[in-house]
Description:
Elements: H1 13-20, H2 27-42, H3 47-67, H4 77-94, H5 99-121, H6 126-146, H7 148-151, H8 176-198, H9 200-210, H10 212-217, H11 222-248, H12 258-271, H13 277-296, H14 301-316, H15 319-348
Amino acid sequence: MQANHSTPTPLSADVRRVMRRPVRWTMIEIAFWILAVLSWFFLPEQHLILTEIAGIAIFALSIDLILGYAGIVSLGQAALYGAGAYASGLFSIYVTGEPISGLLVGAVAGAIIAFATSFLLLRGGDLTRLMVTLGVAAVLFEIANQTAWLTGGADGLQGITIDPLFGHFEFDFYGHTGYAYSLAVLFVLFVLSRLIVSSPFGISLKAIRDNPLRASAVGIPVAARQVAIYTVAGAYAGIAGALFTQTQQFISLDVLSFQKSADGLMVLVIGGTGYLYGGIVGAVVYEMVQDGIANLTPQYWQFWVGILLVVFVLVGRDRPRELISRLTARAGQMRKSSSETVISKRQET
């Protein structure tokens, strides 16, 4: 009697345990998010830059999902970011300024643009994808520039007003509400990303990234998985753009520029790809370096930022990831030693 190969094989206990491992929170991660929350209380004068960091981190997280886990290179993520920013801004002007619904509109806009253009990514290799994504961003940039009656063109979209969050917390000039709001959105999207990359779907993305031909040979629908993760990443980028609109209450064509895509990619390169925290760490380092040097040399800050980034990427690109891996491993060893000590004491008694 022949076996029925169409019936999925139940996962063994070892496989289920390995799949659950990345979902578990380590002490380092818990401490990181506690510090992020405490920064709202102890760094009130830095809320504006912390809001920018949270928005860029979400943008870098969207790039990490497609580059670090699916191996899809892109130079046009600004197209999805800008689509979310403009959609959220227009929604607040013509429909309602309620922030949560504006955030969802931005996510839908980014996801629609990503899904519509994802089929272009299935043709060709990395170089083709770079050119296609760059071309899509250039097309959207020109559309926004020519439809000045709707987007404001080169003058930017003005008249955006955002209602108080939950009807009580107004978006102020100091970024107090904006930072708490952005940090909460970042945390929710980060948790969702952990679930995605730790699921069988996320593991199949890693298989596609490492060897698409082998993944296809074992039955993974490569094209469908790439379209799906690119659409999800588009929603993330759209949310990042919507957050920018809601916290700045102004949009210019810069949100669709190549510079925006390059910034997101640079942040991810600094922090490291393929471990989710790379975008957050990279956003913190990039914004702090940029802000510090701009205060020291307002005229030549771009020169020094460029020099430092080149040195950092060449010399210490993998340092943040290595440091986090070591701290996580050390915490795991300490927890294991503590558990063994407790077990030995119970056996002695």
